[in-house]
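Appendix B. Raw example, untouched.
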Amino acid sequence: MSLRVVLRPEAEADLLAVLAWYEHEHSKLGEAFVDSFEAMIASLEAMPKLYAVALENIRRGKLRRFPYLIYYRVLSDRIEVMGILHGSRDPRVWQERADLSKTS
């Protein structure tokens, strides 16, 4: 049984902002970003613990072709995406979103 992937509101806002930026640069880049993101989501659903632990129960996967990291945690009933952030962003951004005491 695979777990469903759920984006927290902050992660959804991240996704929309990144997509808008790439669409502004070139529509094909926006499409490529969506493809890369969807591939990551499929990967998370198939193998939630594939990617490295970034901090305690938070894992981090890198999108192919794009310098973005997906921060997520595997809970008992879902995979919760907490952020979609550029690799050069300050890690405090996603760390402030994480309630590290939450495990399920």
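End of appendix B.
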